[in-house]
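Q: What does the predicted 3D structure of Transcriptional regulator, LacI family look like?
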Amino acid sequence: MRKRETVRRTTAKEVAAAAGVSKWTVIRAFTPGSSITDESKRRVMEAAAALNYSPNLLARSLATNSTRQVAVFVDDFRNPQKLPFLETLTERLQAAGLVAMLININNHFDHVHALLHADQRQVDAVILFGTAFRDETLTDRQLGNGMPPMFVLARDSQIDGVPAVVCDAELALRDIVDHLHDRGYRRPGFMSGAPALSTALRRRQHFTDFWAGKGVSEVELLSAEKYSAEAGADSVRQYLSQSTPGNRIDVLMCENDILALGAMDEIRGGFGLRVPDDIAIVGFDNYELSGSSAYSLTTYEQPRHEMIDAIIGMIVGSIKAETMTLPGKMIVRKST
């Protein structure tokens, strides 16, 4: 087999010589936010293009003590509502000169392994997105001091010192319950998703509290094992099979849109009931399919772009790293 020839990379020193500047000026020219004159940057870029030069990010990370990498932990990839968040998150990270390292938290790769993996790669930060992260994880003896800073996206942080950027669940559920109460619904139900993740959303608690404030103390609680349309359908099927028409809920709030879409399919297709005439449905997140004529789902939209901009600002240091709660907006459609 013919041995592959090694192509020598052009160095920053060679670019500096061609541009008539110092090596450190070349480094600054390729470092976002660095102080450099327009003329110097122009000369460096022209020389770099002529010599086919690209910076060695590994070498730069050793010099700057920053890899510009951010680890993103996700443990519910089956939830399709994660995709719009991940699309926006990776786009905004790249625009800020950062690169996302996506890590799948699962039965074979838990949080401790993921944190050790991220630390060994010297990431600049860790974003916990849709993960059930607990205090005891941080006290694991395998984890030493100096771990990268952590942030929680789209869920409340359960850990002191780990800030979260989250949609205002209290405001959201107040708006939802006010809307449902004004429409005349009085027999509410709530479907929660994966137990380990639901606790960090607080949506069920706010839902029951606001109904109690309106004199409705009984809220039927349904549970789905995971965030999927199939799980939503299974949960509502079990409830409807065990209840009688005269005693059923008249509105079902689902913890997210995917559960709501699955529940709606089962209510209409499996039991021949009408939405909203027999049972009204509400979701959360304003998933793309929710606005289609097939569903026309009433839901609540999180301020995705603002949340992601805030968490990136905390990572790069332009915003103080502290828990931030942002308002979303109610989207009323035909399902209520």
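A (community wiki): The structure tokens above were generated from the sequence. The mean pLDDT is 87. Residues 82-95 form the longest helix (14 residues).
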